[in-house]
Automatic annotation (TrEMBL):
It holds the Pfam family GmrSD_N. InterPro entries: GmrSD_N. Residues 14-106 form the GmrSD restriction endonucleases N-terminal domain. This is GmrSD restriction endonucleases N-terminal domain-containing protein. Transmembrane segments: none annotated. The lineage of its organism: unclassified sequences, metagenomes, ecological metagenomes.
């Protein structure tokens, strides 16, 4: 039986894992569908230090990765080499991770009103 492990990771660690090409998205996952308002609400929740849900990773056996179909996504597109296999597959949290990456990379713009402290 598989062993489940719960661990807390700061968002910067998840971003670094993505930048190192350690995250992949299985083909069974839907593509990115979040609207601008959902992205804004996520960023605002993070700013207010509200809980933003869990991110579920799976670390499959390395021999299984050879046969898995991966979806191209903002999560996996930064892999240094197309031949590099991810260490983890994101089973839940893809919309949130992708939204954060899009904001950080400037492909989705979110504005902050300093006077009202609102996004």
């Amino acid at each position: 039986m598989a062993k489940l492990t719960r661990m807390e990771k700061p968002m910067n660690v998840i971003i670094e894992e993505r930048q190192r090409g350690e995250l992949g998205l299985p083909e069974i996952q839907r593509g990115y569908v979040w609207k601008q308002t959902q992205v804004r609400d996520l960023i605002e929740s993070m700013y207010k230090n509200y809980p933003c849900g869990l991110i579920l990773y799976w670390k499959p056996p390395s021999e299984m990765l050879d046969n898995l179909q991966l979806r191209e996504s903002a999560i996996s597109s930064s892999r240094a080499s197309a031949d590099k296999k991810p260490t983890f597959l994101v089973l839940d949290g893809q919309q949130r991770i992708t939204s954060i990456m899009r904001v950080l990379e400037g492909t989705t713009e979110v504005y902050f009103n300093v006077e009202e402290e609102k996004f």
